[in-house]
Amino acid sequence: MKQRFFDAHCDTISEVLEKGQNLKKNFLHLDLNRLEEYDGYLQVFAAFIDKKNIRTTPQKHCMSLLESLRKELKYNLVTTWEDLKATADSGKIGAILAIEGGEALTGSLEMLNRYYQMGVRLITLTWNYANELGEGVLEDSGGGLTEFGRQAVIAMEELGIVIDVSHLSPTGFWDVAKHTKYPFIASHSNVKALCNHPRNLDNEQIEFLIRRKGCIGINFFPEFLVHERECDVSDIIQHMEYILSLGGEDCIGFGSDFDGISSLPKGIAGVQDMREIKRAMKDAGFQDEIIEKICFSNFYRIFWETLGRR
After folding, report:
1. Does residue 54 have a pLDDT over 90?
2. Is the pTM higher than 0.85?
3. DSSP 187-250
């Protein structure tokens, strides 16, 4: 079985810039040298916008992060379904640009189009707090999506941008469900029944994503896996098994949150250890077909379908 992976979320570019590193080789959770050790790796790189901790406007900050990503990843960028297929077929690294925090849009559909032209193919609608699109999980008054948020998700579907509801409030989740018709994702969220954290999804949300043929990226942060500071790979497997028990074999992938979290499960030091998770899945009795879906094919399908709409 090929050692290939698709990871729907990392925050590496922010860490690279903050710590004066580079994306080719660094001491962070992820770099291009380590990705090259695999038989293929598709990675979503997020431009993370925390409006409370930036020195400029969300738009300027986002633009700066995206330009840095484009410079570092110019030979690996995936913006079309043809790029996606070529990368998967070649076994090379593919990089997909994303925005985490819809305040970068500044309430403007024109900015949404501009980001699309820059290569953005996924937008996480909110971080933990409210913005022009809607409310995050830590600033949730029950308002859900704003009118602009409803317009934006419709426009994202038309453009071919994957809609990501990780960090979005529960009411916002159901507003997205109501105002969209295609699969959407929770790029880096876990199972609330196993770890009762606001960032995780309840059974009703998981079952809807399964029916809609969306996808959930399992987040590696211990506090989202077990609500404690320490855990191990078996806890990642447990969240997968729970979603599988609901009929979600086509709905599970990875959303590692590398370089966006302060700790990792024991046995996972960074992207070099993705193969250890795959080995644990095999040891837990997962069939090869399901392992391939979780490691690669489920998120590949989401992006294939979304990019193919243009």
Report:
1. no
2. yes
3. TT--BTTTS--TTSBPHHHHHHHHHHT-EEEEP--HHHHTSSS--BHHHHHHHHHHHHHTT-TT
